[in-house]
Input
Amino acid sequence: MRNILILLASLSIIPSCSTQSPKLEHQPEPIRGVWLTNVDSDVLFSEVGIKDAVDFLVENGFNTIYAVMWNDAKTLYPSAVSQKYLGYDIDPRLAGRDPLLELIHHGHTAGLRIIPWFEYGFAASFKKGGGHILERYPNWAARDTSGALLTKNGFEWLNGYHPEVQQFLTELILEVVTNYDVDGIQGDDRLPAQPVEGGYSDFTKTRYADEHDGNAPPEDPRDPDFKRWRADILNRFGSELYGKIKAIKPKIVVSWAPSIYPWSYDEYLQDWPNWIKGGYADEIIPQNYRYKFDRYVSTLAGLAADSLGLTEEQHSLIAPGILMNVGNYLIPEDYLKNILQLHREKGYQGEVYFFYEGLRKQENKLGKLVSDFYGTHK
Output
């Protein structure tokens, strides 16, 4: 447990947020956003591409870009934190540029919000056995009940219960908040999150024993009390990170894009209704990714205020995420129209699309659909 006490002390250098009478933040207009990726998209690989995307989004009624800035253990901006921890400062394909600075310049000139998205969160790698991070920091690995590297759906995971891992992600995020004129930051279904099958690294078992009279964690990772204990650690991380961000720039948005509740809690320990209740979420974009409309309707019903135990004011922070395009899938036009109409019927005035390229395919047909809808639903 290398430098644990030092790191624990360092986590409290910047004040954390208060949990008393949290003040909810409200956007001046409904979120009409899109995720901008560095996978299956060339936008971020040239300034010309960035300006073209910004112009297209403004022309078609959008107001927010969630741009990936942490993916595959690499930043998409020149990062002193990445250099310090990992030995490189940016994705080598972007060397000599600062895509985040370019995006902020063109986006703000056009009136868009720019929110860096830390997509990988607590993930270490995808089908790389932990990749570069765990080669450097093997003690950062999350472990399952067998002691193997925690892996779920191809992703290998860092141990989000470890203060060194939390400090690393905190430094990455605060670096962006401090150095760039961003409108917010965003974590997603990997931040803060951990697959429920984890919690069995030597560090985490020792931490559990220290807090449970020397007892070992339950052998069943889905034990309700063990789930609650781990989720509470992630909740504290989210709360403390929120406070540190607001201590630097009080007005920027802290956005989270978790999975659908309660699946998010059962599978990834993302207890996000309590993030809203605790006052450390300014917006929540649940990933309501469904391929059939009837499934979309049923999961959207689970996001209702009464289903989540939220007040209407708290519930107003939610804007659903829509799966528009992934791989060869492109959402059918009628399905998208039905979703948008359903949102307005249920009181949602905004949404976020995954991802930008879906708007541009087949001669921008979905971009035109969305633009027409926004033109008649101000």
About this structure: Confidence is low (pLDDT under 50) at residues 1-27. The two ends are 54 Å apart (CA to CA). The first strand starts at residue 32 and ends at 36.
